[in-house]
Specification:
Layout lengths: L11 E4 L5 H14 L3 H5 L5 H9 L3 E8 L6 E12 L6 E10 L8 H15 L2 E6 L6 H10 L18 E2 L2 E2 L1
Parallel strand pairs: 4-5
Antiparallel strand pairs: 1-2, 2-3, 3-4, 6-7
Length: 173
């Protein structure tokens, strides 16, 4: 059979729930490979109870694209997104935090399918926008986001978490 005659396996996109710990672990391993950060995603994995609790939260959306049917299979890609309730208006935004597809399955529409499912989820949850940070050196991701949305020029800063001593209204924190 010639390569062009091979049928691509059917891919299903679904949202993970508290019982999907193996798929969540597979997605974290995929993120570690895709982002070249195996230590970040694999050195200190959370326990099953933590993952089950996280996957049960309404404001955390973990979507996977898999082969093998709607109730689980081989994870080919996925994303993690968080809802942020706003204070200036009664609305929410969704932050697409991580998105990756296995190297051998890229450029086949999997990332687009994941984002389209997130858009449907966002509409169902009453969100008004999904935003995502793109790294300047990641041309394929930027091209995808340009195709699906509009670009804003912003800067990203990581602020360290510390326990500073502050004086507010005469009280120390």
């Amino acid at each position: 059979m010639a390569p062009q005659d091979r049928a691509e396996p059917a891919v299903t996109v679904r949202r993970l729930g508290p019982g999907d710990i193996p798929a969540m672990r597979a997605l974290n391993a995929l993120f570690g490979r895709a982002f070249a950060e195996p230590e970040t995603y694999g050195a200190a994995p959370p326990d099953d109870a933590y993952l089950a609790d996280l996957l049960a939260k309404a404001h955390v959306a973990v979507l996977v694209a898999e082969t093998g049917g709607e109730d689980g299979g081989t994870v080919l890609g996925g994303l993690v997104a968080y809802e942020l309730d706003k204070v200036e208006r009664a609305r929410r935004e969704i932050y697409l935090y991580d998105l990756a597809v296995e190297a051998g399955h890229r450029r086949r529409g999997i990332a687009t399918a994941l984002i389209r499912h997130l858009q449907a989820h966002a509409a169902h949850r009453g969100a008004w926008v999904i935003f995502v940070q793109g790294d300047s050196g990641d041309g394929p991701a930027l091209a995808l986001y340009d195709r699906l949305g509009s670009r804003e020029a912003v800067l990203h800063f990581d602020l360290p978490v510390e326990t500073p001593t502050l004086a507010i209204a005469g009280e120390s924190l």
